[in-house]
Amino acid sequence: MSRDRNNTRDDKTLVNQAAKESRAMEARMLPSSGELSQEQLDFVRQRVNERCDEQSLNYEQVDKKVGVARKAVRRFMEDRYEHNDTIIARKLDRWLRGSEGGVGEMPGQYVSTDVAEKMIGVIKQIVRRKSMGAIVGPSGTSKTTVLKAMVAMIPNSAHIEFTRTDGSQSTVLRRLSAELGLNDRYTSYRMMQNLVKSLKDSDRLILLDEVHYLSKKAMNIIRDIHKQTGCPIVLVGTQDLLETIDDFDQFHGQMKSLVSMTYNITAECMATGEPLYSVDDIKNYATAMKIKIDLSGAAFVADLASTLGWGGLRSAAYLMLNANMLARDKTVTVKHLNSALREMEGYDGFQRTKQKQTQSRKAAVA
Questions:
Q1: Greatest CA separation found in the chain?
Q2: Best CATH choice for the domain 114-263 from the list 3.40.50.10860, 3.40.50.300, 1.10.290.10, 3.10.450.50
Q3: Are 167 and 214 spatial neighbours (Cβ–Cβ below 8 Å)?
Q4: Which long-range contacts does 326-329 make (Cβ < 8 Å, 24+ apart)?
Q5: Strand spans (E) along 259-349
Q6: For residues 82 and 62, what is the distance between their CA atoms, to the nearest angstrom?
Q7: Are 244 and 256 in contact (CB under 8 A)?
């Protein structure tokens, strides 16, 4: 009896649940090639009916999702499809695997939060002023996601995400040249000339991500590009970026005089005492992830995501994905979230997170 209880408990862990879902998915996969047997075709039909029941779909709606002619799915389901059954069955199989319920997924597009809307507001002001601006915040606060959304919102804008290997002056010029469709194999002097010529008076928005990786010389290049072209440039990075902007000796005030707006995500949160993310923010994010979460669970996640240094919205998303596995396609609750957090971080990490969460609440009240 004790062994049975242990097996039941173990089956609820993230690792065992992941293995179980993987096995279930594999069992539902069709052979990769060849004509399908009647038994396999009937199995696809059964799964289509189950998915239609789960998601309240009719066959005509599935036609559109799969990308086949009107009533093609209905004819296949009734075993009177006039073309190759294997071809449409494989199309249906791909749709079935792509619409698998109960797992959740990272959002496929921009999700509005208060922090994200403030970032967008700052960027739009920088565009209007044709100035430079800075957005500073910890990892996981959707800075990169917002920049990608801005590229879609503002035509002809450019977004470059730097890495640790992009810190030099020449590398920055090459990245900028390549992004703008210019030759990136010239000398630094020639690339600079071409960039200025291409950008001058164009008002093209340049979004530079992870700028804290750049060297002093590279930052000088960015400053000079703005001064010579008048293009609005948004610098995005961690707290280290502020030290560069505020370093009077380094740039003799030239960089600071060009920055018209700075949004320091962490500083504003600490100054106002308001959390980074509201319960509504988390509910909207969970919906975009195709996850059902109750009000208490959303409040739990919002509290964690607003704890500075924990990992922000990105870590919150992973937590909700893991909790959703434990909830098994039911509503995610605080119980599921606590269990997932404990497994994600281990006992010591879980205790540290709880302690950090408590300290963050006290600081907000103070």
A1: 79
A2: 3.40.50.300
A3: yes
A4: 326/12, 326/14, 326/17, 327/292, 328/17, 328/102, 329/101, 329/102
A5: 259-264
A6: 18
A7: no
* Closest of 340, 277, 274, 347 to residue 312, by C-alpha: 277
The DSSP annotation for 61-107 comes to HHHHHHT--TTHHHHHHTT--SS-HHHHHHHHHHHHHHT-SSS----
Order of strands across the sheet that contains 206-209: 158-161, 206-209, 233-237, 132-136, 259-264
| DSSP states of 326-349 | HHTSS-B-HHHHHHHHHHHHHHHH
Helix, strand and coil percent figures for the chain, each rounded to 5: 65, 5, 30
For tokens 């910890």, name the residue.
Answer: 138
Q: What is the mean pLDDT of each run of 10 residues along the chain (366 residues)?
A: 45 68 57 85 90 85 86 92 90 78 69 94 96 93 91 92 91 95 94 97 96 90 95 94 75 79 90 90 93 96 92 93 87 95 90 84 58
Tell me what pLDDT residue 1 has.
Answer: 44
The whole-angstrom separation of Cα 52 and Cα 355 is 45
Report the alpha-carbon distance of residue 283 to residue 290 in Å, rounded: 10
Burial of 225 from C-beta contacts in 10 A (0-12 / 13-18 / 19+): buried
Give Rg (Cα) of the chain: 26
Three-state DSSP state, 260: strand
CA angle 304, 150, 273 (to 5 degrees): 30
Distance CA 145, CA 111 (A): 9
Rounded to an integer, what distance in angstroms lies between the CA atom of residue 347 and that of residue 224?
51
* CA neighbor of 114 nearest in space, from 343, 293, 268, 271: 268
Closest CA to 107 of 148, 137, 136: 148
- The rounded distance, in Å, linking the Cα atoms of 262 and 245 is 10
Burial pattern 31-56, b for ≥16 Cβ within 10 A else e, equals eeeeebeeebbebbbeebeebbeeee
Dihedral angle, C-alpha 289, 294, 300, 303, nearest 10 °: 70
